[in-house]
Amino acid sequence: MRPWEENIRKVVPYVPGEQPRREGIIKLNTNENPYGPAPGVQAILRGFEAEELRLYPDPSAGALTEALAERYGLSPGQVFVGVGSDDVLAMAFLTFFNSGKPILFPDITYSFYSVWADLYRIPYERPALDEDFRIRKEDYFRENGGIIFPNPNAPTSLAMGLEDVEDIISRNPGVVVIVDEAYIDFGGESALPLIEKYENLLVVQTFSKSRSMAGVRIGYAMGSPALIKALSDVKYSFNSYTMSRTAIRLGVAAVRDEAYFQETTHKIKATRKQAAERLSHLGFVYPDPSANFIFASRPGTDAKALFEALKASGIYVRYFEGPRVGDYLRITIGTDEQMEALFQFLERY
Ligand SMILES: *Cc1c(COP(=O)(O)O)cnc(C)c1O
């Protein structure tokens, strides 16, 4: 090893789902939304002047924080925006998890959590989900340095009831509890109303799934002014201009179109219901889905072989190696036509 190499930070990075360049595929592997962004987003892009990029953006992304505050009935001081919720969550780990005590998150969950914890050298413990892939709230009733879990959980698509979420929060007044609601617009009950009651609760959401804007990179956190100020202070110690002028304007246009948001999330929920029924007919089992994907397994069928066969025929779903999850495929809900192509393949297979 060369001497300078000894002092390089060693990390095992998160592995995102494939973004194949191949044309004409059916992409059900990264939980993107099959419907485009709200029409107002396209209109902004058409009218966008390159000259506008000469200036730095508003460092507070005020127009976007205000639009979100209005949409969720909050004050702008309760909202923080970032470059996708990955950026917001990474910033939150850096800001809130500094006690030296282990933070807690489920053993089967969004795999970025352990990556950030390793990156920032935050110790962590991962209580196991129960045999039905449910989070056992009692596992979070012990001393810890902070808590994070998605609701609905990923990759299981299972939602935890709000009472159980509140139990976890109320039993942990001494640490920050983060509820990652990347999929809440597709099912489950948001913990957002609880931010008025618990100053240590941070609710994180994203434009990537329900608002169909994964390519723009917008995520946001909502919480007490004290938490939001702490996050902002860390952000301004890192990079003042995380949100581009374009992202801010496109984000505002998306939040303003409530009708389109409702219409497309309802369509996805309807397609999910049909897909779940068809999967059952084909002998698949799955936890009750509340997100825009179904985590499905077929007893007697090798999930990895099925994943490979689907891919060879141009249908991409997500497969995770490992005990328990290795028997499952995570299938994003696409359009009715895309799901039809998937089912035609599965019936033949
Ligand atoms: C997709 C996802 C995110 C990150 O989404 P961004 O595109 O970075 O906003 C965060 N948490 C979970 C559980 C997700 O599935």
Task: Please characterize this protein's 3D structure.
By secondary structure, the protein is an alpha/beta fold. It is 34% helix and 11% strand. The strands form four sheets. A five-stranded mixed β-sheet has the order 2-8-7-6-5, sandwiched between helices. Pyridoxal-5'-phosphate binds at residues 31, 84-86, 110, 150, 154, 180, 182, 206, 208, 214, 219.
Radius of gyration: 21 Å
Share of helix among residues?
25-40%
H and E order: EHHEHEHEEHEEEHHHEHEEH
Q: Tell me the strand order in the biggest sheet.
A: 2-8-7-6-5
Q: How many strands, which pairing sense, and closed or not: the largest β-sheet?
A: 5 strands, mixed
Strand content: 5-15%
The helix tally amounts to 10
Give the class from helix and strand content and strand pairing: alpha/beta
List each distinct ligand once: pyridoxal-5'-phosphate
Give the overall form. globular
Write the layout of secondary structure elements.
Layout: E1 26-27, H1 39-47, H2 62-72, E2 79-82, H3 84-96, E3 103-104, H4 112-119, E4 124-125, E5 147-150, H5 162-170, E6 177-180, E7 201-206, E8 219-223, H6 225-235, H7 245-256, H8 258-281, E9 293-296, H9 303-312, E10 315-316, E11 329-332, H10 336-348
Parallel strand pairs: 1-10, 3-4, 5-6, 6-7
Antiparallel strand pairs: 2-8, 7-8, 9-11
Helix pairs in contact: 1-7, 2-7, 3-6
Bound molecules: pyridoxal-5'-phosphate.
The site of pyridoxal-5'-phosphate has 13 residues, from helix 3.
